[in-house]
Design a protein that fits this description.
alpha/beta, Spore Coat Polysaccharide Biosynthesis Protein SpsA, Chain A, eight-stranded mixed sheet, 7 helices, 14 strands, globular
């Protein structure tokens, strides 16, 4: 297989905020406030983000005292990689996302100023000005020009990510692989894990609890599992009410991430490559059949570091413009989605 990459610009993961009980005012990324935290040029010292817009003031997010103990490892640096892979078969999808995406790209850049940020573009850019629009946020877009298997984009990206990481493993120590559209990084996620770790996300909705979690008995995921691996396996996992592992967010050392992607590829049902959702079905299949045990994975059910959607225990303070967990008062590092029940708050909307 011939492999090549063409650098065409920059990009990140982005989305728009919906706020149900307060009236949204337009974002203003020009707002600047002095941070209560010191920012420094010392790469070994943690830098808290200073991003401010009409809904979020990162200088007021709480990472002091006990809330700062999550940062146990070296801050983000040039040997860290935040990696996305996406396609834009429908150019209008980017047009719908662009305005709101710019604000979230700025948020990500404030959280991870020194990490390398790359989007692997599967297919063509969605607009002629794509490179110009994204370059300012420090995110490199690499066009994948080698042949990928005929499959959905969510399956193709597994191959693209694996090949890219294998070719560039000498450049990086730690990697975050994240969905392009709806993973929100508020602070230095790299400072929360080491190159020896592999952290995977379970789909739970309450802090440090498994009381509110999505299981493989959920209709859509049960269907994907049955279609990919057969009725017997799908029903077994569903009857066990095994908690769903999310396929859109991985944290870990580069070698463990490559091994994870390799195991996924080896277990794909080659006759179901056009099945949307096979990526997540495969991840859960290899997890529940013990194929990841040797990697000594850490499963985050809903922690300060990482949570799928902290619906029952997250809180948005519209006066302070910050998010905290109700029981701890601490602010989050990564949230895949924000869907708070009280006060009502959703982030981001669905974008087809």
């Amino acid at each position: 297989m011939h492999i090549g990459y063409v650098v065409i610009g920059t990009l990140s993961i982005i989305v728009f905020l919906l706020f149900n009980l307060i009236r949204l005012t337009p974002f203003d990324i020009k707002q600047k406030l002095n941070s209560v935290y010191d920012r420094t040029n010392n790469i070994d010292q943690l830098e808290h983000p200073t991003y401010v817009d009409s809904l979020f003031n990162m200088t007021r997010f709480n990472y002091s005292g006990e809330c700062g103990k999550v940062f146990k490892y070296k801050p983000n640096n040039k040997r860290d990689l935040l990696l996305f892979a996406s396609s834009f078969d429908d150019p209008q999808r980017w047009a719908k996302m662009k305005e709101s995406s710019q604000h979230i790209m700025a948020l990500t850049e404030s959280a991870l100023p020194r990490a390398k940020k790359i989007l692997l573009l599967l297919g063509e850019a969605p607009s002629p000005t794509f490179e110009e629009e994204l370059n300012k946020y420090g995110i490199e877009v690499i066009k994948v020009i080698y042949e990928l298997p005929v499959a959905t984009a969510v399956v193709q990206r597994i191959f693209a990510e694996k090949i890219f990481l294998e070719e560039n493993k000498h450049k990086f120590d730690r990697v975050i692989i994240a969905d392009f559209r709806d993973v929100l990084i508020f602070n230095d996620a790299f400072a929360t894990f080491s190159s020896n770790d592999l952290v995977l996300l379970m789909e739970c909705l309450s802090f440090n609890s498994t009381d509110h979690c999505v299981t493989l008995n959920e209709k859509t995921n049960k269907k994907w599992m049955i279609e990919a691996y057969g009725e017997e396996i799908g029903k077994k996992f569903a009857e066990n009410n095994d908690i769903l592992m999310n396929g859109g967010l991985f944290l870990g050392g580069i070698n463990k991430i490559i091994e994870l992607l390799t195991i996924q590829i080896n277990n794909l049902n080659k006759d179901k490559m056009m099945l949307w959702g096979q990526d997540q079905a495969t991840l859960n299949y290899i997890h529940l059949t013990g194929q990841l045990n040797h990697l000594n994975i850490t499963k985050d059910y809903c922690t300060q570091r990482m949570c799928f959607a902290e619906s029952f225990t997250g809180y948005y303070d519209k006066t302070m413009k910050r998010i905290t967990t109700k029981s701890t008062g601490c602010s989050p590092i990564i949230r895949h989605k924000l869907v708070f029940s009280e006060p009502r708050f959703k982030y981001p909307p669905s974008i087809n």
